[in-house]
Amino acid sequence: MKNNKKISIKEIAKLSGVSVATVSRVINNNGRFSEETRQKVLDIIKKYDYTTNMAAKSLRVSKSKTIGVIVPDINNLFFAELVLEIENFFFEYGYSVFICNTAQNEVKEKEYFRSLDSKLVDGIICISSNLINPANFIKRNIPIVYLNNTDMKDYYCVESNHYEGGFLATEELIKNGCKRIVLLTNNKNASSVNNKIQGFKDALKKYNIPCYNDLILRLDLKEGVFEDSLDAINYLIDKNINFDGVFATNDLRAHSALVALQQHDIPVPNNVKIIGYDGTSISQYANPPISTIYQDKKTLATETSTLLLKLINEESKNLNKHLVIPIKLIKRKTT
Amino acid sequence: MKNNKKISIKEIAKLSGVSVATVSRVINNNGRFSEETRQKVLDIIKKYDYTTNMAAKSLRVSKSKTIGVIVPDINNLFFAELVLEIENFFFEYGYSVFICNTAQNEVKEKEYFRSLDSKLVDGIICISSNLINPANFIKRNIPIVYLNNTDMKDYYCVESNHYEGGFLATEELIKNGCKRIVLLTNNKNASSVNNKIQGFKDALKKYNIPCYNDLILRLDLKEGVFEDSLDAINYLIDKNINFDGVFATNDLRAHSALVALQQHDIPVPNNVKIIGYDGTSISQYANPPISTIYQDKKTLATETSTLLLKLINEESKNLNKHLVIPIKLIKRKTT
Q: Does B176 touch chain A (CB under 8 A)?
């Protein structure tokens, strides 16, 4: 039978014959100790059912050594790679990372904010283009950093230079002769999308190329990013709507466009040129390999994580609230 | 200033003017209540700093309405799709799902077991081929269900029929004339791998095809599944080691083999035939599309989740401890 009376760290240290600091390290899985020491401490903890107090302790000191990452879609390699980089970064500092996939669903995003809060995470990285204010769902005062979303003005944000990305992608198509360019993107009213579209429009303007409304495809999420884009390009082809270039705002959509064109035996890049966005392995290993705008996932993840860690450790002096990471054009075989 | 004295659910109910059951529903985000009710209850909770007690309550009743999923690599679409199906399933039942990516690293897997335990999840789905006994890291008595791993004899497991998968894949290559077949897989001593290899060997035996040791590639994880497989196939080609078929035990590896062969202008399927495993969109949208063994991700995820939910709800009577889901061959353009 377990003894359910409360026991302090001091008492555990005394009973296990080690220092309070060592007990703390064992409890937090943080720092060095022998397997023997761990076992001794864990035995005492188990005997006195210390779990309860661990949660209580975590509440007292507000450091649970866990963070949450809100992510729209781990099915998209860009997000998967970002999350893995974040996870790697925090693992080095002894943190566990809980990945919360929202499937771009606002209800889920809200639930995850609540749930991460109740699990006492030390901070949250939010990769989302939903305009949900976490303050409405998170009761504790914990740091939150946004990645690729500058719409949440009250929060720190690290983003790629999406205006430049949109501009360079469009310019690449124009310089290779495209005059009727499809913009294949989503329907979110989010900074990352809007900035790309502004770059697209400004590039067309600079080169005096008309912007056709029927070629701007802002898709709702229905079956999935890949399937929805495939349907959209198939629709244009089936309706004989003429186009000679596709700027897809992620590589998954660019790959969809390539597959749709190949299924209709329309040669790429001869008849239609394609450029993607993100720089994931999807574009690299497609056949033919797809030109793309490269987002520096490693730097995005590292800068976002560094920022969050500093905020968790209350080192918020002189921190830049908004960090912009350069993008670059990778020219492959589809432009 | 906050009032830090402890407050019970009963007191919250009284102060908010609603029933205890309603307070409980609001706290657990579970069931119906108006936004007004939620606000009233949350105001009281906030005023009396009830967070502390929420964790305590969660400890007492052992239902936190969260589960953890241990996953080896969300970069692999097979795992990403499984996790998304699990997440969808549990969302319908009001659960949040914490995804824990181990990058196949045993240390991380152990840390995540500990961390999920301390976060008081109600249960865990473990997708892993590491032979780590969770009982060494999880102190509470919570249900754990394994997916595609029958090595953990003490635990419930749902898996695809990997012996049949390995057999059918190999038979497909043999029936299309292959005599020197590369087996492209990992180095784990895990049931999912071993069963595929047994199927491979038995198919060779049945058709009197020799099994060449230098064509059995059991790769360590170095740079990544895709990159490692690319290197391995490039090595065979560069060393003029002859082969006319590749059975890759996942689609990512099959796609690597295709890319490596294409980079060397070796025609697929004319000179070398390829079959993958899993049935993800990688094989479907590769150019040419890759034949594969389809694992029924929806059924795997649903059966695993149903099992875990029943165990959480203590409905463990008449449950099958080991469930095998059929696979099927999908013939495309590479065999």
A: no
